[in-house]
Structures are given as C-alpha cells and as structure tokens.
Amino acid sequence: MNNRADIEERVVEVLRTVYDPEIPVNIYDLGLIYRIELNDEATRLQVDMTLTAPNCPAADFILEDVRTKLEAIRGLECVDVQLVFEPEWTKDMMSEEAKLDLGLM
C-alpha cells in the first residue's frame, strides 16, 4: 500500500521541476496548480492546472512535461491532468518566493 503523504509530497516535488520556458519559476510556485487529488488508495491522481495566459505558446510542452513526470511516480497507476482556465490566473496566486524571484516584491 502506498503512503499517501509520501506520494503527495513527491507530486509537489515533481511539479516544482516543471517550468514555463519563458518564466524562470516552476509552475507550482507560480500558482498554476489548482488541485491535486489522490484517490483513497493513492494510486489515481487528478491534477487541475492552468497557464499564465490561455494562448501560452508553450502549453503543449508544459502539459506533456507535467504528465510525463507525474506518470513516473512509483505507485501511481493513473494520472489525469486537466487544463482549466477558471478561476483566471493572476500574479496574486504566486508564492512569496516566486514573487521575489521575479522582482515583484
């Protein structure tokens, strides 16, 4: 049986390795991840994410990077990544660290 907390921690670690090629901050700290949900057995993962702009030229690359990296997590049997645009992303969703890295504080 998988340890749910370990898998959730690993999901966040993995998401922090994914970058929009145009922004030097990972998608997790940018606030682009809206939902991370594991089923009771911690074998099925659902992720809702957005982009900084709906017409992001790197959208396909970012989504594929997220999906590929999450599918590589040991114990996960199914990974479902959904691209959503509600609520609309704003700079307020970024972590304090991301804001500092981008000179917004």
Describe it:
The chain has 105 residues and is an alpha+beta fold. The chain has one domain (4-101): Fe-S cluster assembly (FSCA) (GMP Synthetase, Chain A, domain 3, 2-Layer Sandwich), CATH 3.30.300. Helices cover 30% and strands 17% of the residues. The protein is built from three helices and three strands; from the N terminus they run H-E-E-H-E-H. A three-stranded mixed β-sheet has the order 1-2-3, with helices on one face. The longest helix has 13 residues, at 59-71. It is globular, with a radius of gyration of 14 Å.
Concise account of the structure shown:
This protein has 105 residues and is α+β, with helices and mostly antiparallel strands. It has a single domain (4-101), classed as Fe-S cluster assembly (FSCA) (GMP Synthetase, Chain A, domain 3, 2-Layer Sandwich). It is built from three helices and three strands.
How many domains make up the coordinates? 1
Largest sheet at a glance? 3 strands, mixed
Radius of gyration: 14 Å
Q: Please provide the ordered H/E string of secondary-structure elements.
A: HEEHEH
Helical residue percent band: 25-40%
CATH homologous superfamily assignment = Fe-S cluster assembly (FSCA)
Which spans of ≥5 residues are poorly predicted at pLDDT below 50? none
The rounded distance between the terminal residues' Cα atoms is: 43 Å
Outline: globular
- Determine the number of helices (DSSP H or I, runs of at least 4 residues): 3
For this structure, the CATH topology is GMP Synthetase, Chain A, domain 3
Number of strands: 3
CATH class: Alpha Beta
